[in-house]
Specification:
The chain is of the alpha+beta class. Helix 1 packs across helix 3. The structure holds coenzyme A. Coenzyme A binds next to strand 4, helix 4 and helix 5.
Length: 174
Amino acid sequence: MPDLQIRRATADDVEIWRALRLEGIAGHPEAFIVTEQAARDIPVDVDARNLSHGHRWLAFLAGHPVGLIGLSPNGLDRARHRGEIGPLYVAPGGRGQGVGDALITTAISHGQTNGIWQFELFVNDENVAAQRLYGRHGFEVAGAIPNAILGTGGPERDLIMILTLSDQRQIPDI
Ligand SMILES: CC(C)(COP(=O)(O)OP(=O)(O)OC[C@H]1O[C@@H](n2cnc3c(N)ncnc32)[C@H](O)[C@@H]1OP(=O)(O)O)[C@@H](O)C(=O)NCCC(=O)NCCS
């Protein structure tokens, strides 16, 4: 295993977060819902505030930032058991070394300790690398969204992938 460190991002990491996200969008526009311009237009303090909520992580290889992941817990009372994974990005130099695995494991583990037992995500149906990664963690295809994103080559289709940790299922008092 290379010198891999995953740590929770804080508001102080906002420039690292923004740089990695922009790099990801530029290289893989189909993998992000926001466009490069829209990402640039997000005020830095908005990104910093989002990072301060504690549901974002960064990956470092030998101290160099190479990846990011987010988890968005569903805030509604009756959907508190659900969380959406994304964005997820590993820079080309960090791929194939377990960085994506470690980021997903971290996000799921954090979600579990916060009562989340169903994890959901959207992935472009041509993004086989990401689908294989998610599949290894138990995510299954639950459906598809036609015309999910209007790409440069036309409408693109997304798959919905879901991981339900049935053994952790709890019905909270509402
Ligand atoms: C998808 C992604 C997060 C995978 O990250 P990773 O840390 O390389 O993950 P893994 O090491 O598990 O590799 C996943 C797959 O990438 C491919 N891969 C492996 N090494 C690679 C490399 N050096 N370069 C490119 N792709 C590689 C393989 O197909 C691998 O699948 P396999 O292990 O079943 O053969 C990363 O490729 C990425 O950020 N892609 C662009 C953004 C994106 O697609 N995000 C997900 C949006 S839903």
